[in-house]
Amino acid sequence: MTFARVRSILGILTLVGLTAGLYLGLIWAPPDAYQGQVQRIMYVHVPTAWVAYLAFLVVFIFSILYLWRGSETFDQVAYASAEVGVVFTGLTILAGSIWGKPTWGVWWTWDARLTTTAILFLIYVGYLMLRSFVEDRSRGARYAAVLGIVGFLDIPIVHKSVEWWRTLHQAPSVMRPEGATVAPPMLFTLLVSVAAFTLLYLYLLSQRLHLERLDAEILERSREG
Amino acid sequence: MGHWNYIAAAYLVAAVTLGGYWLSVRRRIRRREDAIRMAVGDKR
Fold this sequence. Notes:
The complex is a heterodimer of chains A (225) and B (44). Chain A is an all-alpha fold and 225 residues long. Chain A is built from seven helices and no strands. Chain B has 44 residues and is mainly α. Chain B has one domain. Chain B is 91% helix and 0% strand. The N and C termini of chain B lie far apart (67 Å). The A-B interface holds A 22, 26, 31, 36-38, 40-41, 44-45, 48, 84, 87, 90-91, 94-95, 98-99, 101-102, 200, 204, 207-208, 210-211, 214-215, 217-218, 221, 225 and B 2-4, 6-7, 9-11, 13-14, 17-18, 21-22, 25-26, 28-29, 32-33, 35-36, 39, 43.
């Protein structure tokens, strides 16, 4: 199966998944007993946060592989995933802010979870800036790989921030040792949304990786010519 | 009454951000493909 065909299949699956997630999140799932309808923002906010974690995990793994093996393909995957991760982290912050206003009364507060997430966003914006500012491609790739590995250390801090510090942000309600505290229809909707957004991440990653390969091809041709 | 304006805003922001990003990647791909096609044409 060709890479183009994989991208097309991923695109179709993503569209189906997002349509199902939209229906379940906006119509099928019941409103929350405490927050009411506004809790439906969770079906966007939590999956985007999950994808941001996943994207930066991919950056972490492929940065290590790049420094270890030196293959350009590993660097291309890390770079592509970092860009997609920044988009999803930005969206997590935006959706969280829109959810924060009706529930906390403020768009933003310097809460531990929000602050560590903002730092995470800035670390990977820095990663992307490093890639575009360093002219020597392989040197830029090496610097970025180090930042991609070090930057990942913020993810456990972001995740644990609601337990380590007193915060406005709610504690985990799904990934807990005692089991999920979310009602089954809500949990099902959340899992479908997480799956749909994961497919979207894979689709965007495949597209962004294709772009990296085209860039490499242009660079190769310019060296030959 | 709920807070449907906030819900609509969150879903709309998600659609615009992700859709906009997807379009920007597609546009960049198309530009690169055109550049490669032109380079191949020049060589011929």
